[in-house]
Amino acid sequence: MSAALASVAQPRIRPRKSIFRNPLVRAVISICTFLVLWELGSRMKLPWVGDVPAPTVVMKAWVPLLSDPGYWYSWYQSSRRVFTGFLAAMVIGIPFGLAMATSRVFRDITFPVFEILRPVPPLAWVPAAIIFWPTQELSIGFVIFLGAIFTIMLNVIGGARSIDLRFFQAARSMGSSNWDIFRRVVLPAVLPSIVVGCEVGIGITWNVVVAAEMISGGGGAIQSSAGGGLGFFIWSSYIGGSYPQIVVGMISIGIAGYISSAIIRWLGRVITPWARVR
Amino acid sequence: MSASSRHAKELGAAIRPSEMQINGVSKGYGDARFRTEVVRDCTFTIERSKLTVMIGPSGCGKSTLIRLLAGFEKPDRGSITLNGTPVTGPARDRLVLFQESALFPWMNTWDNTMYGPRARGEATAENRDMAEFLLNKVGLSQFRRKYPSQLSGGMQRRAELARAMINNPAVMILDEPFRGLDAMTKELMWEYYSRLFEETRRTNFFVTTDIDEAIFLADRLLIMSNIPCQVRAVLDIDIPRPRTLISMVENDRANEIKMNALSILHEEAMKSFSRGSKAAADFVDAYSKRVAKG
Known about the structure:
The complex is a heterodimer. Chain A is mostly helical. Chain A contains twelve helices and no strands. Chain A has helices spanning 2-9, 23-43, 55-66, 69-102, 104-117, 122-132, 136-161, 165-173, 178-216, 230-239, 243-271, 273-276. The longest helix of chain A has 39 residues, at 178-216. The two termini of chain A are 39 Å apart. Chain B has helices spanning 2-14, 62-70, 109-113, 115-119, 125-137, 153-165, 183-200, 211-217, 245-250, 252-274, 278-293; strands spanning 20-29, 36-46, 51-55, 77-82, 85-86, 94-97, 171-175, 203-208, 220-224, 231-236. The longest helix of chain B has 23 residues, at 252-274. Chain B is globular. The N and C termini of chain B lie far apart (60 Å). The interface between A and B is medium-sized, with 24 and 25 residues.
């Protein structure tokens, strides 16, 4: 019994904090391991991976691009398109979603159309978008907009409809008007759902950017073939048979998507400070 | 110190002695064929400047009654009046403290407390003073910038008390406010809450399922029957205030009342237990025969 007590009383000894406990170190290890396995798989001509250019080959194709203004112009083009399409989706989707959640009549009228349009994939909209919109940029922006808006709207509706009834009752008892309840109860209560919707939504916009930029057909591509946007860059590399450049384009989109989501997450934490604290 | 005692006086003076009358109230749910009457022909009074506690088996329709009192719903029959005026909808003269915290998670303690005055466009210096005073009173002035999720369960309840009291309601309605708190915190909250009541003597209506809580707090105890909800018995809890946890344990009168209340409650609980079950009904039957034999 005394032995048991002694073992309880002993403090846990941890001689030094292992470096592997740092999440950043873990992330680096994860990426390095992935690259090494990829390189090995590619060199040993393993099935499937053998046909993919090895990381070293990809790097060789990437390095000259880093000093190519066309490549960076593609980054700018794609980011601009994603940003404007996404912004339009937010500006239209959030009020629309709030209206659908708060007005029964509005929901009954708009929801069926919304539900029919929602499952249509953005890719299927590409031909229609080319026909409907006067300029190429508008067509691209429209497809990106479609990629984000449904997710944002669904999250807004879901968030608004799951607000605790007692919040309304409490606000009403304390003398709140409808407008006051909307402004000080509904809006902040929906904000976390809006953030989630935007985070998922911006990921989807990068998913559809390739489809959207196939429309562009290199239009506006100045300086070099790399200037039509990252999606178009992948497509033209494929047409041109430059496989390492395809992978460069893919990774570039991956990085761009990661950065965008991180920015949205950061903004989300700033505007919903109460959700951060525990 | 002198400023806060001035506030205490104002707080006490501003309270209108108010009385609620519940007369033959019935309320049911569902359409005509599958209608369940939750409250039937319920009549009682929430007397002025008293702490009336309602206790009844869980699921007996107490929460429905509270929604009716608050004006969130309307009774099918009967009338509810506050100082003779019929209740028509929710208003600041009858504020409800809900079962679990209904503090707005996106507002810190200060903004939650000031919600009512701001909603009515009364964010005056006087009300800010009052918020300050009330936060001090509930011991949360250090926590004014904290969000509800950063407060403990007991602190949340106290913040909610401050948020309600700043609106100076004529009647405070509390729906099992201390449910879910741990035993220690709960008992501390009983003492704290009854001190608060004794200071202001605002008319309070408190609903609970906990017999110890009920007897500790109550001036009058309403014991409710099972669905449909009706008043089964009214007990006057004539134990002098202020009460403490220890004095209540030692008090013979308190124990006598508790035994009395428990026997009524037990009968009602058994009825709800046996509702719809032949086996349970037989069990209750056999049990009561054995009790009768002694």
